[in-house]
Amino acid sequence: MTETPLIDIKNLSLPELAQLLTGLGKEKFRARQIMQWIYARAVTDFTAMTDLSKAFRTELQRRFVISDWNPEAVETSIDGTRKYLFRLADGESIETVRIPMDEGRATLCISTQVGCAMQCDFCLTGTFGLTRNLLPAEIVNQVCAARKDGPINNIVLMGMGEPLHNLDNVIKALNIIYLPIGLDYGPRRVTLSTSGLVPEMAELGRRIEVNLAISLNATTDELRNRLMPINRRYPLDQLMRACRDFPLKPSRRITFEYILIRDLNDTPADAKRLVKLLHGIRAKVNLIPFNEHPESPYRTPDESTIRTFQSYLLDRDIVAIRRAGKGLDISAACGQLKGRLELRQPLAAKPLNQLD
Ligand code: SAH
Ligand code: SF4
């Protein structure tokens, strides 16, 4: 007799667990109790769930597992940034980064895919192509594991992968992360960053509340086509329209991430076009001086160019924050996450119509 594989309970949303339990003749509210044990009390063993009958606990054990992660490796930067390497069940690996903020707070940068299909020219993750999507449990477990290492205040989906290219699993993971009886991150504490998958942006807005960030990086289609192949499918006018249409709660803004690359997108003319693009959008701009890496010919602009660019925006009442490149010494900074992807051959650039 072959046994049915056990279901990882961390892949289930609350309604899904409730449905499975009612199918087993249990009360629906048991799902809440179980989620509370797992996410609020970090229990990883059904036998510890003492408000459930012994027989029920045994039954749960026969049908489900609770996956529980510990990093295979942790690196700590001189600035306190910590990078965790997680080994997945199929041998793949991903990275997650804890970034210390002011007043002892911390932001966790999580991955949504192994690799990424978007092949942005400046991004190390993108040069290896997509291996696979992460499951909801694999997204949630990054948070659960990092919390064992200290509190996490905010979560950003800015690690490896394009979250909107794995939309269903990302939405399920967010719903788990939001559960008030569990990890209890309100949608205001979570930011999803996208390279600009326009139809999925609309779908995201319809299905769930989350802060939105756009990796913009260029102000003309000509340059953005070159830097981010996705722009050939969804050019700037479509992207900006999708931003205007995105449902925003009062006092919320869309974040635009803009990597400053020397002599490429860092001129006053770029700043001027950026102001124009953002007209009528409740926006804030994150300026990220390009993190240099050996595989890339791009360079960071010099200090005065960065200041001039930022001042141009500030003078026109655009919130423009300069994001420090944290964790540079341990390759934990933006665009440097690759798990153990470096063991593979980088992809030759694929034509856009072959991006899946
Ligand atoms: N795929 C999504 C999620 C985050 S990707 C997206 O592109 O929005 C990682 C982030 O790091 C992006 O904002 C990207 O613009 C930035 N990034 C990539 N390579 C970088 C580099 N070399 N220097 C600075 N930022 C980089
Ligand atoms: Fe993928 Fe984002 Fe890197 Fe582009 S910047 S390759 S979308 S991870």
Task: Map the helices and strands.
Blueprint (H helix, E strand, L loop, with lengths): L6 E2 L5 H10 L5 H12 L13 H10 E2 L7 E4 L5 E6 L5 E8 L5 E4 L3 E3 L14 E4 L2 H12 L6 E4 L9 H12 L11 E5 L3 H10 L3 E5 L5 H7 L2 H4 L2 H10 L8 E7 L7 H10 L5 E7 L13 H13 L3 E4 L34
Parallel strand pairs: 1-2, 6-9, 9-10, 10-11, 11-12, 12-13, 13-14
Antiparallel strand pairs: 3-4, 4-5, 5-6, 7-8
Structural summary, described in words:
With 356 residues, this protein is an alpha/beta fold. The protein folds into two domains: 7-65, DNA polymerase, domain 1; 77-347, Aldolase class I (TIM Barrel). The protein has eleven helices and 14 strands. It has helices at residues 14-23, 29-40, 54-63, 136-147, 167-178, 198-207, 221-227, 230-233, 236-245, 268-277, 303-315; strands at 7-8, 64-65, 73-76, 82-87, 93-100, 106-109, 113-115, 130-133, 154-157, 190-194, 211-215, 254-260, 283-289, 319-322. The strands form three sheets. The chain has a ten-stranded mixed beta sheet, with helices on one face. The protein is elongated and about 70 Å long. Residues 348-356 have low confidence and may be disordered. S-adenosyl-L-homocysteine binds at residues 116, 122-123, 158, 162, 193-195, 215, 217, 257, 259, 288, 290-291, 334-335.
